[in-house]
Amino acid sequence: MAPTTSSGTTSTSSAITLHINGEKYTLPVDHRTTLLDALRERLDLTGTKKGCDQGQCGACTVLLDGRRAVSCLQLAVAAEGREITTIEGVADGDRLHPVQQAFLDLDGYQCGYCTPGQICSALAVIEEHAAGWPSAVTADIRPEAGVSQLTPEEIRERMSGNLCRCGAYVSIVEAVARAARERVPDAYVADARSADTRSSDTRSSDTRSSETKEAAV
User: Fold this and answer.
1) What are 10's strand-pairing partners?
2) Are 35 and 20 in contact (CB under 8 A)?
């Protein structure tokens, strides 16, 4: 039920407490305020980016109780009482999270605008996969099949809700794969760089073979 004022009319604002990156923030908000706007405009947590503002691009992705959510479609009042993690809360002090380090080392960004959302999504993707959650490209979804390989195709599918206008997708896939291997070093986590290299080598080999045949004619 919506809160009412002393005159009996329905109030359109409330004081809420948000749990963000291990800290509590109490603030009055209009009930229509999105979590994204509360983070950026009210709490100065500007790491979370506003892209399309329609839930299409993933730039505003944060974690709610460990699961990813596009904050432009999440009302701030609906996030009260939940554990919110933004890009500002990913690192351990001055020590970068393995996902952040992988993005840095492997150039998983260009302009960097989508990177906070990409990193938050990658954190959730790695945990979802480790927990055995299938994706649309998982070949065998039977529980007894166990955890599938985290192939480049799996990573692309699971990260498909995050768009990069610079087109840094190849490096993003490699970064997620590396971070996943650090999280779960078992053999089922595939090497995206090796897979892409093998694919490239195969294409090059096919091209050379075709050129050789043409030269022979």
Assistant:
1) 4
2) no
Tell me, what DSSP letter sits at residue 90?
Answer: T
pLDDT value at residue 213: 40
| Rounded (to 5) percent helix, strand, coil in the chain | 40, 15, 45
DSSP state of 10: B
pTM more than 0.90 = no
Q: Report helix, strand or coil for 73.
A: coil
What is residue 88's predicted lDDT score, i.e. its pLDDT? Answer: 98
How far is CA 215 from each of CA 69, 103, 156, 202, 203, rounded to the nearest angstrom?
55, 43, 38, 20, 18
Q: In angstroms, rounded to a whole number, what is the distance separating the alpha carbons of residues 36 and 50?
A: 7
Exposed/middle/buried for 126, CB within 10 Å: 0-12, 13-18, 19+? buried
Nearest one of 24, 37, 23, 22 to 76, comparing CA atoms: 37
- In DSSP terms, 62 is beta-bridged to 69
Q: How far apart are CA 181 and CA 176, in angstroms?
A: 9
Task: Name, in order, each residue with C-beta under 8 angstroms of 102's C-beta and a sequence gap of 6 or more.
Answer: 108, 174, 175, 176, 178, 179, 182
Query: Strand 13-20 relative to strand 83-85: parallel, antiparallel, unpaired?
Result: parallel
> Token digits for 168?
């840094």
Residues 90 and 196: beta-carbon distance below 8 Å: no
pLDDT tens column, 139-181: 998 888 888 889 999 999 999 999 999 999 999 999 999 999 9
Q: 117 near 164, Cβ under 8 Å?
A: no
SS3 label, residue 102: helix
